Structure prediction request, 319 residues.
Amino acid sequence: MSNKPHDGLARRSLSKPELAGAYLASVLPEGLVRQLDLSSLKLEKGNYIDPALSERQADFVYTVDYAGREAILYVLLEHQRRVDPIMAARFYVYTGRVLNDYLSEHPNARQVPPIVPVLLYNGSEVWSAPTELHALFDLPADSEQLFPLLPNLSYRVDDLRRTTDEEIEARAVPAFATVSLLLLRHGADGDAELFDFVRQVAARWLNQLEDRDDLISAFTYILNVSSAEAESVLDVMRSALEPQIQEVAVTAADQLRREGLLEGKRELLSELLQHRFSLSQQDLASLHSQHLASATKRQLDAWGKKVLDAKSVDEVFAD
Prediction:
């Protein structure tokens, strides 16, 4: 199972320009939205967050036409339960990296595109951190001369836990975007609350989805964030979903079971290799992380049989 279910669901939704454009239109100021040609929205490559924070964050970078010019929209998904008090500073660093890439690609540039930061947050605490960088600077009372010289940045917050289901459902976005936002909002619920939400709200939207991969993504998220056994989750979904949609839920559960078994084999082989050849986890990862990460069940089984007799770790992976 993915240890970052929020990322998988958000990437499925926000990687689609038409869904991302509708989402951004629902959270940005109306006057700005009128100036953006969201039909020109393009998802760009790049990952600008700190590696140490990748378990709790994911980012999405878009270029868009803005009154005949290029603008950059930067969306950061923050799924830590607690508020990060220095988020404005993190945005300053991340957007600086975006601009650095822009300047590398445009060495003769004399101007740079504006960057609009948006925080998509589904933590349990109310978002209370300053939304401007200026508010974070540790300044003496008499700082009038310094203040105008300090860099600044502000960001927009979409705090899903402080938004009602009805408000999300009222947004003018495609059905899968609605499903994604609703699920992200309820991802930290306990099972009782999550199951009530699935029966009373989510099922109505899930029954409208036609894209099988969208349904797989939504059901995978529900199965991942619930602490209940998969069969119990499926029972809840069966009680509220149309028969053809139920079949997709079962498929998602089967896929997760297979992925879980494969991950278990991968972890077992890793432990055997570390013990047999006196390797640290870091040493093994540096030597053969690609082998282990991409291995099929058949390959893992074959390598497992070779561990006891092989004279070196390289011999285990040799053809």
